[in-house]
Design a protein that fits this description.
With about 240 residues, the protein is α+β, with helices and mostly antiparallel strands. It contains 9 helices and 7 strands; from the N terminus they run ααβααββαααββααββ. The strands form 2 sheets. A 4-stranded antiparallel β-sheet has the order 4-5-7-6. β6 (about 225) and β7 (about 235) form a beta hairpin. α2 (about 30-40) packs across α4 (about 60-70). It is globular.
């Protein structure tokens, strides 16, 4: 914003254009497939894992992964295999994970984040709870619609878990099935808003996912608030 308190539209345009180049890195179908694979994993992945998942050679996978890092879509860390350390352990493996960055491109720029902040502050300032209840009901309705859309679009052979995970993806989540049967969500689609209005956003996430569960024919009570660093605050427990 400038000294008079006006928004700098040139800066907004530059920010929007700045997101175009990184996202254009996903135009390549192999690179897109690698990016989706890395994003779907709970732990950082190696070049060997990525190449096997994409069905390509390790050298080609390394090239595309490093291009995604250069574009800011993936980040890199180095780890030695578990149980190996000290002299003779070899070089640490280069591992890849999804970069902690949001991308948003609209041309010309539209400030949807400002609208989000206005609505969330309205919820906070409403001492009666009426606005909070209304937004929660809308979140449930929209989740239910996404769940029903997933059911109607599912193939005849799709099982309940597949329908549910597809519905979660429709709403912008990255679901991960755990060994104990829980479904955790590796991301919060509203993470930027949650940084300033976490309690409200977490409750809206819960209402949205419970509506979604209802839409796919599941028990909404399976969705519970269990915040975990680096994940969405909602966990879906296995059915009884």
């Amino acid at each position: 914003m400038d000294g008079a308190g006006h928004r700098d539209t040139h800066a907004d345009t530059g920010a929007a254009l700045g997101d175009v180049a990184p996202l254009s890195a996903l135009d390549d179908p192999v690179r897109h497939r690698l990016y989706e694979y890395v994003c779907e994993q709970d732990q950082p992945v190696s070049r060997d894992q990525a190449s096997g998942a994409a069905g390509i050679g390790r050298t080609l996978a390394a090239y595309h992964l490093d291009r995604l890092v250069a574009a800011g879509l993936l980040s890199v860390e180095y780890q030695r295999p578990e149980g190996r350390g000290g002299p003779g352990a070899g070089r640490p493996a280069k591992l890849y994970r999804r970069a902690e960055r949001d991308f948003s491109v609209t041309l010309p720029p539209r400030d949807y984040e400002l609208l989000t902040q206005v609505l969330l502050e309205s919820v906070e300032r409403d001492t009666t709870g009426t606005v909070r209840d209304a937004t929660g009901a809308v979140a449930e309705r929209m989740g239910r619609a996404a769940g029903e859309a997933s059911v109607s679009g599912a193939a005849g052979t799709a099982d309940g878990a597949e329908v549910l995970t597809n519905a979660l993806r429709l709403c912008g989540y990255q679901p991960s099935l755990q060994d104990a049967g829980d479904i955790t969500l590796r991301n919060c689609p509203f993470d930027r808003a949650a940084k300033t209005h976490r309690d409200i956003v977490c409750l809206l996430n819960l209402r949205l996912v419970r509506g979604l569960m209802d839409g796919v024919g599941g028990d909404p009570a399976r969705a519970a608030l269990e915040p975990t660093p680096g994940h969405c605050c909602v966990v879906i427990h296995p059915g009884g």
